[in-house]
Every structure is written in C-alpha cells, then in structure tokens.
Amino acid sequence: EVVVYELATRLVKRGHAVTVYNRGKLHDKNHYFVEGVEVYRTLTFRKQALNAMVASVTATFSALRRRYDVLHFHALGPSVMIAVAKLFGRKTVATVHGLDWQRAKWGGFATKFLKFGEKTAAKYADELIVLSEGTRDYFKETYGRETVFIPNGIDVQNEKKADIITKKYGLEKDGYILFLARIVPEKGLHYLIDAFMQTDTDKKLVIAGGVSHSSEYAKQIHDMAKDDRIIFTGFVEGDELWELYYNCRMYVLPSDVEGMPISLLEAMACGCECLVSDIDTAKNVVGEYGYTFKKSDVNDLKNKLCEILGKPKADKAEQIEYVKNNYSWDEITDRTLELYKK
Asked: Would you place residue 213 in the very low, low, confident or very high pLDDT band (cuts 50, 70, 90)?
C-alpha cells in the first residue's frame, strides 16, 4: 500500500493520469480521488482466502474496459491476470514484492496460485520489477527471465521527541527495543520474544503492528509474552509511528522471509541501530551499517541483543545519509516512469 501510494501520487504530480484499484465494496464510496489519484473499489468476497484472488480478476476486467497505456500489477497473486491483459494487447508491468508462496500464512491451494502468478509474470509481463538482487537471481535461474531492480523508497518525517509514546506507554528515549511490522509468522516475532525474555535488561520490548491473516498466531504471541517489560501498541501511524523510530534503543527485524522491508529503511533513516536476520533481503539493506544474526536462531539473537545493549549507542549520521541518498521515492518514481515509457 505504501509503495502504490508513493508512486501514484508522484506520477500525478508529474502530469500523468493514474488509477488505482482497491478491494471491497463500501456502499457509496466505490469511486473517489486521493491527491489526484483516481480510485475504484472492485467487487470481491469477504472471505480472506479468496478476496485478493477475486479482486485481481474483477479489477483487471474493469481496467480492460478503459484505455490505460500501462497496467501495473503488484505482487504475485494479481499477476495471474497478466496473461488475460496480454490477450487484449495491453502493456503490462509487474512488481514482485517478494516470493509470497514462501510465507507461512498460505495453505496448499494459495501457494499453488501464487506460484502460478509467478510463472505468469515471468512469461508474459512486458517488464518485471524486483526489489532485491536475490529475487533478480531467482528469476534468472528459474525462468531465464531478465528483471529490473528498483527498490522501495522512504519518505521520512523530521525527528520527533518522545511525547505521545510517553503519555500512552510510559516510553522514554532509548528505553526500549522496537519491533515494528505485521504480526504474522514469517516476521519471526516469536524468536524475538523468546530471546528478549532470556535477556537481562531493563529495556522494554515494544511490539508495534497489526494482525494480518493469522489471528491464531497473534494469540500465540500474546500467550508467549508473559513479561512485564513487553508492550503491545497495535497498529501505529503518524507522529506516534515516527516517535517510536526516533526514540528506540534499537530496531529488530527477525524475519524468515522478506520482500524489501520499508520499516527497516525507515528505521535506518531515523538513525536506529538495526538488528536483522541474515536473509539476503534484510542484510543487503542494512549493509555495513547494521547487525545480523542467524535466521531462526534464538540463542544467536539473544547474544546479539546483549552485545548491542552492552555498548554505547553508535553515531548513525553516515547511515542516515546512505539511506536518503539511495532510497529516494522521487528517484524511484523517475525510474519506474522510464520503464513505463520503454
């Protein structure tokens, strides 16, 4: 959602007409505008397992009735419909945000559907965007398909002092470790809670994020977190979000699977010390500026937490400049637009 918003609004400012298709029906609000971007809500089912699949079908047929120059499909599931768009002679671009079939929330049929979307994108998309060099290598090795690497970007707010988070949660500058992501199995939050509960520290662990697809996993997480130092905030946005970044002692992303985590880019741009699992899509983002631990290894994660907390907080001026210079949404929009023109 962040990627589409940042691209679409910037394309409109450059003088282009942009339409975005969303899921669901909201009675009298099925056609509206956001900052010049036209939005249609397309018909789908309420059932979680089917709504993305059905929405991609109804959105594509709706789009085919209108004379768009380019249809841009995001993620593997909706990419199943690229073949249909090509039958009608339309130019198509697909962005692979990650190899979604690897994610723990998907069952057998959904995994096969996502794999089919991947194969369809590889075969039929006029241009294929990937967010990491690892995904680029995967498509080359698996399908012989050349792709274009265009990463996600960031749009960071100015520094925020602890205010809302102090009043709501009693949090102070450098007084907590931050996990900020959806509460789903592939994000590895269970490893972090286990490691944190074994760590001798007066820091709190703040878990900020909404539940997506897996309410059973969320219940498991709450059952695990039997520690007074652990705080759940739920989904956060606006000033509260940026206060959490700017005032944390460190940010931790213990994922088993990632596309390209925008929250990690945001944390780096806010000067956070970052600890991530050693999967390519995370360690390639932090580069020389962050710490890694062995994926899924609770003991290594605990040791890295202790190591970082045992040292003074590092100066992150170079890290901030690196992120701002390499992950600008304006530059990413320019590169995407060049791909559309091609």
From this structure: low
